[in-house]
Amino acid sequence: MAATNQADETIAYLKSLRQSRRFLDKPVPQEIVDDLLEVARWTGSSKNTQPWEFIVVDDLATKKALSEAGAFTAFLANVAVAIVIVLDGAAPRSEAYDEGRVSERIMLAASRHGLGSGTGWFGTDEAQDKARDILGIPPHRHVWSAVGFGHVDTAAPQRATSVAGGRKPLEEIVSYGPSGDRQKET
């Protein structure tokens, strides 16, 4: 189906985005990094608390160390740049929401610059401790994720998705109303 208006084009674009994990050894200009940080800065947050700090990591040794910190961070070794999202730790529930918003915004901005991106997750206490140690982050602050980005290596083999066709059908994941009806009443 051809996109017929701006909404159709935007929806098609958003549906086409994928996490990238394989990158070329090619730098990203500082102007683009600055642009992504500006987008992050302007991302909305719960009660406008802006509970974050962003640590830009572009040196090989630190990217490698971060890539070894968690079970879902290996790809960070090969990104051009990683933006580590550090949270205040004052309101963990709302900060989880805010972190998701800012991560996605950084990834969308990277995509509009023609870059691929992915989220590295420091999902255990041990992984968080390692990331904090690597970056010199105080123990009361949270560091759950880093957005890594760069020029995608399109020649590298891509991992197959675990769900045939890429996504479950809406009928399996959507219900309407408190009764959980799978069909919307007309």
Distinctive features:
single chain; 15% strand; globular; alpha+beta; 186 residues; NADH Oxidase; four-stranded antiparallel beta sheet; 6 helices
Word description of this protein:
The chain is an alpha+beta fold and 186 residues long. It has a single domain (19-154), classed as 3-Layer(aba) Sandwich (NADH Oxidase). The protein is 36% helix and 15% strand. The protein is built from six helices and four strands, in the order ααβαβαβαβα. It has helices at residues 6-16, 30-41, 60-67, 92-112, 125-135, 170-173, and strands at 52-57, 81-87, 116-121, 142-150. The protein has a four-stranded antiparallel beta sheet with strand order 1-2-4-3, sandwiched between helices. α2 (30-41) runs antiparallel to α4. The longest helix has 21 residues, at 92-112. The protein is globular. The model has no long low-confidence stretch (mean pLDDT 90).
How many DSSP H or I helices? 6
Biggest sheet, strands in spatial order?
A: 1-2-4-3
Q: What CATH architecture label applies?
A: 3-Layer(aba) Sandwich
CATH class: Alpha Beta
Going by CATH, the homologous superfamily would be NADH Oxidase
Task: Kindly state the percentage of residues in helix.
Answer: 25-40%
What class do helices, strands and sheet pairing give?
alpha+beta
Radius of gyration: 18 Å
